[in-house]
C-alpha cells in the first residue's frame, strides 16, 4: 500500500519545538522533501521507538510554515526491543479497565469502547481511566481506552499516530495490537481493524506522551493541513 502525503504546518508565536510529522523509520519512504524559510533551522532526531521528530527553531518568532511531503509504502512495525507494551504507562492505567470474557477479545473490546465512549472534540482528558469513566473524548482518548483494555487482558497494545487518507486539519491516533502472533492495526474511534490501515504512520508509543509534538513560545499556535492520497 503506497501513500502520498503532503502536510503543511503554519506556526505563529513559536520559538522552537519538535514536530512528529515524518514517516516512522520502519516505513519505506521515497521523495521525502522538507521545506521552510531560511530563518528556520531544523534537524531530524530519532527516539527509542523509531519515531523521527523534526527539531526546529525560528528566529525572532516570525510567522512561518513548514511543509513535508513524501511517498511511503506502509508495512507492519516490528517489536520494539525491551518493550512488551503490556504494562501500565503514563496515561494508560488499568483502573476502570474491564476484563474481557469472550474468545474474540478484539471485537469484544471494539464493541465495549464504542458503547462506553462518545466522540466529543470539545471534551478531552489524558488518561484511559478518566476517559472511560467520563465516557467521552477524541481519537487519542479512544486509543488510550482500547490500549488499556487490551493490556489489562494480556494483549500487547501501543498507540499509533499519523494521518488517514483524505484531507484533514489534524493528526489522528489509533492502535496497534499484537494479536494471534502478529501486529495488526485497530482504529477504535472508527470501529475498524486490519493488518494495515490506509493511514500514513508517523509514530508509535506506549501512549500519547511518546508521540506528541511540542512547541515553545509566547502563545504558540500550530495550524495543520494534511492531504493524503492512496496510490495504485
From TrEMBL:
Residues 131-190 form the Transglutaminase-like domain. Pfam families: Transglut_core. SUPFAM superfamilies: Cysteine proteinases (SSF54001). PANTHER family: BLR5614 PROTEIN-RELATED (PTHR33490), SLL1049 PROTEIN (PTHR33490:SF6). This is Transglutaminase-like domain-containing protein. It comes from Sulfuracidifex tepidarius.
